[in-house]
Design brief:
Layout: H1 27-37, H2 48-73, E1 76-87, E2 93-103
Antiparallel strand pairs: 1-2
């Protein structure tokens, strides 16, 4: 079963503070993110429906990241910001995101 990592299990250099715009992740940071996305450690195993939902989310995030890359290459700055939080009623929650777009 796939597991999701907790923030405490992530390396301290996972989220470098970029002082300069245009700074890209290092190959090591990309590899670390892929390991986390593959589900390395949080403890609770997921059932098949949860695994399917995570795979769907991962695919959608990949497409979102591609769209962000294309927008940046087209000359805009994109920042994804939490707009709200969806609560599932059983203690689970998820962040709802919106893009903040800046044209230069």
């Amino acid at each position: 079963m796939t597991q999701i990592p907790s923030p405490a299990s992530m390396a301290p250099d996972t989220y470098p503070e970029a002082a300069d715009e245009g700074l890209h992740e290092t190959p090591a940071q990309v590899a670390a993110a892929k390991r986390r996305a593959a589900g390395l450690s949080q403890g609770a195993a997921m059932d098949e429906a949860q695994e399917r939902a995570i795979r769907r989310l991962a695919g959608d995030l990949h497409r979102l990241n591609h769209a962000v890359t294309q927008a940046v290459e087209a000359g805009v700055t994109i920042e994804l910001v939490r707009a709200s939080r969806h609560h599932g009623g059983n203690g689970n929650w998820g962040d709802m995101m919106v893009p903040v777009v800046v044209r230069r």
